[in-house]
Amino acid sequence: MNREQIAINSVSTVRAKLEDCLPAYAEAGFANVELTLDHAKAFLDAGHDLADVRRMLDDNRLRCIGGFGGAIRCFGPADQIAQSRDQLRRAAEMLAELGGTIMVTGTDGPAEPGGDPLGPIVDGFGEAADAAGEFGVTLCLEFNWSPIVKSIRTAADVARRSGRPNAGVLFDPAHYHCTPSKFEQLTAENVRVIRHVHVDDMQDKPGELSNCNSDRVLPGQGCLDLPALFARLEEHGYAGYYSIELFNEQLWSMPVRDAAKLMYQSMLTLL
Fold this sequence. Notes:
- By secondary structure, the protein is α/β, with parallel strands linked by helices.
- The protein has a single domain (3-135, 151-213, 241-268), classed as Alpha-Beta Barrel (TIM Barrel).
- Helices cover 42% and strands 18% of the residues.
- It is built from 11 helices and 10 strands.
- It has helices spanning 18-28, 37-45, 50-59, 78-97, 118-133, 152-162, 173-178, 188-191, 226-235, 249-253, 256-268; strands at residues 6-9, 32-36, 63-72, 102-107, 138-142, 167-171, 194-199, 201-202, 216-217, 242-244.
- The chain has an 8-stranded parallel beta barrel with strand order 1-2-3-4-5-6-7-10, surrounded by 5 helices. Strands 8-9 form a two-stranded antiparallel sheet.
- β3, α4 (78-97) and β4 (102-107) form a beta-alpha-beta unit.
- The longest helix has 20 residues, at 78-97.
- The N and C termini lie close together (5 Å).
- The model has no long low-confidence stretch (mean pLDDT 95).
């Protein structure tokens, strides 16, 4: 990992306004930001437009690398499935207008298991990737979101089976810790479809007793061997962004400038 690959996911400071977050990120040292769209939409709902967001990014010399696009429905009524595709397509368009090329998403699962449960997920993820691809956006499937896609192995299988060049996987250490994912699943074949990485550490608790969101801590303050995980990714060719993503009450309660500085400094320990 090098400095140019470091990013921050704005959900890490989501209780602060976007117009306060962006200067804080730049001051801390970040050059890349991953936007949660709810954060951006709150700014837009206050009477601003995407041009204002782009201007704020430019003023703070920040690059929007992508963001979070909501869930893909693969099961259920056809109109709800179509609605989720439309929402994802609009999210991809918004991110692309801000310069983003990566969008993280997840899927639902079947009400009852049977047959090939991954089949509809492969089809739905592929169709969503087609929609995102219209805007030059790569779709990254987050494992441990769907009740079916619970490991890096399964997420990578879905991405490969979709057959789309812009269909990939998000790797997140918190989800890795809390799921059946294993270090040996970080093979060259699986890492090849990892297109984005979130960064977080976890409290020293067994995975099955951990909350994959609220038990996150700053890199170096938890039990995960992040250097070993990221070294394996890079050994097999990963060269994308590393975006810190924390759901941490202590950080959320701090002034945003202080929280951003702590997160940036923790990322430097991984260089």
